[in-house]
Design brief:
Blueprint: H1 8-11, E1 21-24, H2 27-36, H3 42-45, H4 47-51, E2 67-68, H5 76-85, E3 92-101, E4 110-125, E5 128-141, E6 146-156
Antiparallel strand pairs: 1-2, 1-4, 3-6, 4-5, 5-6
């Protein structure tokens, strides 16, 4: 079997940024997220404890960027449907998420997230002809500092 040949309609997406979206990091959201993932760290759950820490506020667990302020941020499901419409194979498999952390995120922060297609490539895998896509979202805080980068990888086969 041969590797998937990425059509020009998909190659043109590489490097293109989607519309930025704004997220607010709020105390209650931090606490609910920490409880949902089972993280009892008092920096995420206890306002009084966090106030006495070097940060002076609740801190967000790694990879928690808050909630969108606008009605809609980047929608990965719609994006994948767009890829399929442009010629990607219809089968889908989650290839995982990687993070790089640069600065602390805590209650009261406002983040701007910009998503872009980092790469699209064709390969031969055990699934057959497969397209591997990496989508990168960069989160920047209200001071203009990069907070973290998230890279989602998925496979169309």
């Amino acid at each position: 079997m041969a590797a998937f040949v990425v059509p020009d309609s998909l190659k043109q997406l590489v490097g293109q940024a989607e519309k930025p979206f704004v997220l607010k990091v709020e105390e209650g959201a931090i606490q609910r997220y920490a409880r949902a993932v089972g993280d009892a760290n008092p920096l995420y759950n206890n306002v009084q404890y966090a106030a006495q820490s070097k940060w002076g506020r609740l801190m967000a667990p790694p990879a928690f960027g808050g909630w969108p302020v606008e009605a809609e941020g980047f929608d990965m499901i719609k994006f994948v449907a767009r890829l399929i419409g442009l010629g990607a194979p219809a089968g889908l498999l989650d290839g995982g998420v990687d993070y790089e952390f640069y600065s602390d995120v805590g209650a009261g922060d406002t983040l701007v997230a910009v998503t872009r297609v980092e790469s699209i490539e064709g390969r031969e895998t055990k699934l057959g002809a497969t397209m591997i896509t990496v989508v990168e979202t960069t989160f920047t805080n209200q001071k203009g500092a990069r907070a973290f980068v998230m890279r989602n990888t998925f496979l169309n086969f």
